[in-house]
Amino acid sequence: MLEAEIQSLKESFQKDGYAIARAFFAPEVVEEICWRAEKVLSNQTNFSETYTNVTKGLEKADVFFDDLLKCGPQVGLLQKLLGVPPIPTTASFFTKNKNHEEVYPHIDAIFGGVIWVAIDDTNRDNGCIHFLKGSHQREAEFAYLRPNQPNDLSDHPDLVEAAMSSGDMLLFQSRTVHWSGTNHNGSKRRGFNCFYTGKPN
User: Fold this and answer.
1) What pLDDT digit, counting tens, does each position of 88-130 carry?
2) Matching CATH number, 3-197, of 3.90.180.10, 3.40.50.80, 2.60.120.620, 3.40.718.10
3) Measured between alpha carbons, how far is 198 from 201 in angstroms, rounded to an integer?
4) What secondary structure letter does DSSP report for 136?
5) pTM metric for this prediction
6) Cα–Cα distance between 112 and 196 in angstroms, integer?
7) What residue spans define the domains of the chain?
8) Sign of the dihedral through C-alpha 106, 108, 113, 114
9) pLDDT, tens digit (0-9, with 9 covering 90-100), for 31-44
């Protein structure tokens, strides 16, 4: 990745609270992430009562995800954006094939950064991630939000829909308000993400 591209991502990450690295992961890597995650999912017996479409702790089930979480190419880029070494916590797989499932607007409980890789193309119709641009700088204003409590921010002037193509990678500050809507058309909308702690400089 060129230094100018990294600088542009860093400016967006710091100002808006998120950035998108287009075509960051090659198709063959995306394919491996997908089949390995789906293998873990097929062996899963315990599901969250709140979110049936989220599988956390992939790094505990497959050394591939442990290596990717700790040493993948996203780690160095995230460090440049955060300004501090990101400390890995967990890797997760998201599926959004059921029309009714959504995650409501919220901020994460810890300081750090998140990467979210699009396995499939994602847009408004199949429940892409939404952000409130710059909301990481106004934490107190949004502290009341919870991921399992409905709040309609669809008319907020800072709303951004993060449409992505397979292989694109979102990087966002965990204190940026984010959510994902319902899958209106029922197409596959799978994503892989990694959570890291570390307060941005």
Assistant:
1) 999 999 887 665 678 899 998 788 999 999 999 999 999 899 9
2) 2.60.120.620
3) 9
4) G
5) 0.92
6) 5
7) 3-197
8) negative
9) 999 999 999 988 87
